Amino acid sequence: MSDPTPLFDDAQALLQQAAGQEGAPRRRAVVQAGVGLGFAAATLPVAAQTVVHTPAQGLTAGLVQIPVGDFQMPAYRAMPQGGGAHPVVLVISEIFGVHEHIADVARRFAHLGYCAIAPDLFKRQGNPAAYTDIAALMSELVYKVPDAQVMGDLDATVAWAKAQGQDTARLGITGFCWGGRITWLFAEHSPAVRAAVAWYGRLTGGVNLLQPRHPLDLVGDLKAPVLGLYGGQDTGIPLDTVETMKKALAQGNAAARASRFVVYPDAPHAFHADYRPSYRRADAEDGWGRCLAWFKDHGVV
């Protein structure tokens, strides 16, 4: 198993910072009417002045159950109220699971006419909200989630959305950190994906039975163009891995050659996470605009 620590230096530093701040605000469970997973308990301090809140008015939003064989996988679903088939966007969380920020991102898509679904891909292995230590969260939960299981859960999510009358012919996927890596993998796995946007997802690394291959290893299988949004100051994702991925994409198939990277020179890891001090508003807003344009340009609209 590869060492997960470098990927989450930012998060662990914030954990230490929070531990040393008496009375520092903590992330709380605020999706109780939805998935109910909330924020990971006491993991990070909230940058309260930058938290974005997107209302649910005009939306059908909340908990759904998605069958995966005999397992019922919870997910947060947000879409416009009323009938009609909407384009579908899968929203894949970071290591902290489907908490309020991820639900908020889903609602942002829903207000733009999408059916956005954020599945709880950690459910079988545990609840990220129960952890207060990054290393324990990684070793006891995140690294016990097999890539193959995740791909199957996302396939099931797409099938469920189609059965609900949503337009999976216009399917996109986006994800953050852990979810960014999953975004690359699903775009390499599923021919149903039209376009993908990966926010600072790991591209390569050590392998094991549960993570046998990484996005860089599977470039030849890419089914849809990916927009990669990365931070130039991300200490967990070296820019040389981005450059290596760029070269591999340039030599790949049509979807690979159509893929693009945007690197924000001054941005750290998790620059889109508006509940954390790593948030960089200008870069996050620019990335969000590019995400929407990418989906539009590739028919996910």
Task: Tell me what the structure shows.
The protein is an alpha/beta fold. The chain has one domain: 3-Layer(aba) Sandwich (Rossmann fold). 31% of the residues lie in helices and 19% in strands. It is built from eight helices and eight strands, in the order H-E-E-E-H-E-H-H-E-H-E-E-H-H-E-H. The chain has helices at 9-19, 100-111, 134-140, 147-163, 178-189, 239-250, 254-258, 281-297; strands at residues 59-68, 71-80, 87-92, 115-119, 167-176, 195-199, 226-231, 260-264. The chain has an eight-stranded mixed beta sheet with strand order 1-2-4-3-5-6-7-8, with helices on both faces. Helix 2 (100-111) links the parallel strand 3 and strand 4 (115-119). Mean pLDDT is 87; it is low at 1-34, 39-43 and 45-50.
How would you summarize what this structure contains?
With 301 residues, the chain is an alpha/beta fold.
Strand order of the largest sheet: 1-2-4-3-5-6-7-8
Q: Give a count of the beta strands, DSSP E runs of length 2 or more.
A: 8
Oligomer: single chain
Count of domains: 1
The amount of helix comes to: 25-40%
Largest sheet: 8 strands, mixed
Radius of gyration: 18 Å
Termini, distance in Å? 39 Å
Residue runs with pLDDT of under 50 for 5 or more positions: 1-34, 39-43, 45-50
- Name of the CATH homologous superfamily: Alpha/Beta hydrolase fold, catalytic domain
Which CATH class?
A: Alpha Beta
- The SSE order reads HEEEHEHHEHEEHHEH
**What is the tally of helical segments?**
8
CATH topology: Rossmann fold
